[in-house]
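F.,

This is the one I mentioned.
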């Protein structure tokens, strides 16, 4: 036990160093361009899976600076207004997602880590049952739109192949 708490942590017997295994902060952007929301498909994802722009903070930057940088790096869009939506757990990946609404402009040019994107009308958005999907749902509610979630079957279909080993690996 560490510091009298209930959590058992890994500790090096030789030097006493403790592995805290704290969650990693991840930034997420609900990117809005001319009233539509940009959803992107990561190169490692199945063809039907699109989600928010996400990325890790860099040392020395604020979350707002980090989300603007991620939007620029991944989409080539310029962020103009950045508003926090909330913080969300993503326990499976040991992450805390800090989600922002980012009003952006420019011409979309995807980074190599993204393969495709969609610009979605708010009424056509469907949320997914995970951290960034809950952020999108909260953002939609705040704008007077009751969010619609993928059914379990739809979500399984959009994720099909995600947990499979890639060919040639």
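My design for it:
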């Amino acid at each position: 036990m560490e510091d009298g708490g209930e959590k058992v942590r890994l500790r090096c017997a030789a030097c006493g160093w403790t592995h805290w295994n704290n969650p990693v902060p991840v930034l997420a952007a609900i990117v809005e361009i001319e009233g539509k929301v940009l959803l992107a498909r990561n190169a490692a994802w199945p063809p039907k899976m699109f989600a928010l722009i996400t990325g890790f903070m860099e040392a020395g930057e604020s979350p707002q600076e980090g989300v603007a940088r991620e939007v620029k790096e991944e989409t080539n869009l310029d962020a103009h207004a950045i508003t926090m939506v909330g913080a969300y757990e993503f326990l499976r990946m040991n992450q805390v997602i800090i989600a922002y609404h980012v009003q952006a402009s420019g011409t979309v040019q995807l980074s190599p880590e993204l393969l495709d994107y969609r610009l979605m009308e708010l009424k056509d958005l469907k949320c997914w049952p995970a951290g960034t999907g809950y952020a999108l749902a909260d953002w939609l509610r705040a704008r007077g739109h009751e969010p619609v979630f993928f059914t379990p079957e739809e979500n399984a279909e959009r994720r099909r192949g995600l947990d499979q080993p890639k060919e040639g690996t």
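The longest strand covers residues 78-90.

Talk soon.
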